[in-house]
């Protein structure tokens, strides 16, 4: 969105914070405790003027502070009888119960920056500064594409050699949680079909997320097809587990293409580690990397970054990550037991309880 500025001071006048009476503190200092009520200053009315400093004005929350007054005494601390107001306090402070003009923001201050995500709070501020219309970034058009002849629809009964689609729905739900809209597609493992359908998808979307077809199998056509369609490969393969075959590139039109390994745990991990970071950067969103303490010792021998599935608990005032080891990147059910991935570095094999590592949550 565009930068949004304060069109005037916040608050725009010295604002009464409590229902009560407004007085001149100089009279209090002289010992005056009883005041004659001249009138009332209501919210939404022009500023009243106290004509006699020995008197007071009744005031309402949100009203302008009357001219000639500098203290507001709430009704709970005043006894009012007819036109007389007797203050029941031992002491007062100048400017008490008064919200001074410009103390929140000054006219011209930046209230919201281009990277701001709109929530009900931002909508309230936009209304306050009179912005009935505001320029915002358009939503990215995102496609989720599954490939594979072994996949069938949710409603279908799979043959013994088939499985139901799950990755595309997991990705769709994850993106919906992040307030992104998506289109979901499935393409068979046939090079000609893959080429013709991906050509259309690339032309109609800003981000394409593929699941499957990026390893070294004889029917893993995705990298070859993407190249033929003008998608420049930035990298193919990352020294990590799970998700080692991960592929990323960009079409000559600017469309970003993420080709994730088809195993569900690999898909999950690569999405939360890489795709989410890309989408946030595209919208100018910045955030601190979450971290957690490893709750128990863990070892992993290969020289790869290892994304350990963990259960996150809050203990002793800090996040603790309890290992939940599954049976590999195809163990979809193990995702139910965990909440996140803890990124363990590739430079050693032994990791001790209490060490802190980057955390990628999916709950």
From TrEMBL:
This protein's GO cellular component annotations are:
cytosol
Give the catalysed reaction(s), semicolon-separated: adenylyl-molybdopterin + molybdate = Mo-molybdopterin + AMP + H(+)
| Native organism | Fulvivirga imtechensis AK7
Domain MoaB/Mog intervals: 143-281
Does the record carry Nuclease as a key word? no
Name the family the entry cites: Belongs to the MoeA family.
Q: Which residues does UniProt call coiled coil?
A: none
Molecular-function GO terms, alphabetical: metal ion binding; molybdopterin molybdotransferase activity
Task: Tell me the function of this protein.
Answer: Catalyzes the insertion of molybdate into adenylated molybdopterin with the concomitant release of AMP.
Please give the biological process terms from Gene Ontology that the record holds: Mo-molybdopterin cofactor biosynthetic process
Q: Which Pfam families match?
A: MoCF_biosynth, MoeA_C, MoeA_N
* UniProt key word Transferase: yes
Name the PROSITE patterns on file: MOCF_BIOSYNTHESIS_2
> Mind telling me which InterPro entries this protein's record contains?
MoaB/Mog-like_dom_sf, MoaB/Mog_dom, MoCF_biosynth_CS, MoeA-like, MoeA_C_domain_IV, MoeA_C_domain_IV_sf, MoeA_linker/N, MoeA_linker/N_sf
Task: Tell me its EC number(s), please.
Answer: 2.10.1.1
What is the recorded name of this protein? Molybdopterin molybdenumtransferase
| Superkingdom field | Bacteria
């Amino acid at each position: 969105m565009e930068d949004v500025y304060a069109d005037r001071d916040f608050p725009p006048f010295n604002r009464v914070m409590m229902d009560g009476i407004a007085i001149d503190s100089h009279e209090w200092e002289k010992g005056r405790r009883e005041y004659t009520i001249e009138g009332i200053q209501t919210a939404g009315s022009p500023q009243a003027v106290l004509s006699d400093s020995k008197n007071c004005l009744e005031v309402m929350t949100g009203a302008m502070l009357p001219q000639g007054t500098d203290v507001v005494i709430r009704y709970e601390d005043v006894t009012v009888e007819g036109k007389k107001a007797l203050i029941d306090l031992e002491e007062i402070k100048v400017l008490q119960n008064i919200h001074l003009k410009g103390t929140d923001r000054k006219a011209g201050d930046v209230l919201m920056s281009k990277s701001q995500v709109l929530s009900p709070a931002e909508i309230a501020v936009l209304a306050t500064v009179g912005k009935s219309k505001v320029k915002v970034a358009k939503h990215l058009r995102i496609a989720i594409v599954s490939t594979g002849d072994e996949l069938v629809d949710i409603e279908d009964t799979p043959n013994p050699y088939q499985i139901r689609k799950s990755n595309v729905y997991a990705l769709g739900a994850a993106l919906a949680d992040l307030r992104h809209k998506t289109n979901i597609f499935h393409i068979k493992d046939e090079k000609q079909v893959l080429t013709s359908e991906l050509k259309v998808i690339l032309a109609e979307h800003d981000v394409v997320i593929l699941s499957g077809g990026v390893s070294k199998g004889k029917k893993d056509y995705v990298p070859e097809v993407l190249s033929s369609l003008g998608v420049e490969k930035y990298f193919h393969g990352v020294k990590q587990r799970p998700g080692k075959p991960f592929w990323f590139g960009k079409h000559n039109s600017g469309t970003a293409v993420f080709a994730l390994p088809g195993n569900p745990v690999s898909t999950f991990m690569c999405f939360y580690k890489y795709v989410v970071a890309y989408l946030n950067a595209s919208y100018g969103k910045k955030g601190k990397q979450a971290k957690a303490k490893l709750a128990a010792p863990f070892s992993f021998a290969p020289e790869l970054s290892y994304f350990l599935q963990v259960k996150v608990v809050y203990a002793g005032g800090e996040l603790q990550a309890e290992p939940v080891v599954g049976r590999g990147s195809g163990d979809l059910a193990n995702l139910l037991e965990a909440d996140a991935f803890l990124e363990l570095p590739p430079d050693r094999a032994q990791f001790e309880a209490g060490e802190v590592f980057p955390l990628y949550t999916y709950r």
